[in-house]
């Protein structure tokens, strides 16, 4: 089992549970999370979903070992939903979606916050969007959602620099709603989720619809642009060097790429 689920006071708590892989999303976890969101959306007894991670990471993003298999065309089996199906489930999720970032958040472990209605972060957690260090493009409509959420320059730094963002930085730029000490993170997130869940589900859904439905065409357009760039870059010289460096346990060296790369 790669995803745990528990219900309490109309809050469904989903816990990413691949701690040995820092909760990185492989096809199995993409599918499990997408299914869980769709099930929660359809369940009349669930008012709010709270997502967190087990272990020292929230999520390390896409499983790079599986990405390398996909690029090489060997030993890779697509899931039922995959990355794109999980994004569809996030875009379409009609109820409040709360994130509790308990530890490291890389790639999708950071960009998923663009879909959060409330996000909480441990004081010791850190975030990184490692796209340029992997030789690829942004994902999850972050090129649209992040500038809207944190401003153009904060978004540019996060998406271009591949540098770590501290909890205090995330709070200052408005990426998260509150920062808590590690032992207080889940109690704080649960308390807020339960306060939301005490309200009528019909009203919660109406509020979210009025806030987000008009964003869907822009999110779709951003995803299209990102996917096109990602396809162009994946397997290219920069991405190949990044994946080779990861497999060999060394830092990537982009200084000898062909001109323009």
UniProtKB/TrEMBL annotation:
Main location class: other
InterPro entries: ClpP/crotonase-like_dom_sf, ECH/Chromodomain_protein, Enoyl-CoA_hydra/iso
Signal peptide positions (record): none
Keywords: Isomerase, Peroxisome
Subcellular location: Peroxisome
Gene3D superfamilies: 2-enoyl-CoA Hydratase, Chain A, domain 1
Domain of life from the UniProt record: Bacteria
Listed name of the protein: Enoyl-CoA hydratase/isomerase family protein
Source organism per UniProt: Nocardia callitridis
């Amino acid at each position: 089992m790669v995803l745990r689920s528990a219900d309490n006071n109309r809050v469904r708590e989903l816990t990413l549970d691949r701690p040995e892989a820092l909760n990185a999303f492989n096809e199995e976890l993409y599918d499990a999370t997408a299914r869980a969101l769709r099930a929660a959306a359809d369940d009349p007894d669930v008012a709010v979903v709270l997502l967190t991670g087990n272990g020292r990471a929230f999520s390390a993003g896409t499983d790079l070992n599986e990405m390398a298999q996909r690029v090489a065309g060997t030993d890779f089996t697509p899931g039922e939903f995959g990355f794109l199906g999980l994004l569809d489930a996030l875009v379409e999720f009609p109820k409040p979606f709360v994130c509790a970032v308990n530890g490291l958040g890389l790639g999708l472990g950071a960009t998923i916050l663009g879909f959060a209605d409330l996000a909480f972060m441990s004081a010791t957690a850190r975030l990184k969007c490692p796209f340029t260090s992997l030789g690829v493009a942004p994902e999850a409509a972050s090129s649209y959602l992040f500038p809207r959420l944190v401003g153009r320059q904060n978004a540019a730094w996060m998406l271009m620099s591949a540098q770590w963002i501290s909890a205090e930085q995330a709070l200052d730029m408005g990426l998260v709603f509150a920062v808590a000490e590690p032992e207080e993170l889940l109690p704080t997130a649960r308390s807020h989720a339960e306060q939301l869940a005490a309200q009528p589900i019909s009203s919660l859904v109406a509020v979210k619809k009025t806030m987000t439905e008009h964003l869907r065409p822009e999110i779709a357009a951003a995803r299209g642009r990102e996917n096109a760039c990602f396809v162009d870059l994946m397997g290219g010289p920069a991405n190949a060097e990044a994946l080779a460096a990861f497999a060999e346990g060394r830092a990537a060296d982009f200084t000898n790429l062909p001109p323009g790369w």
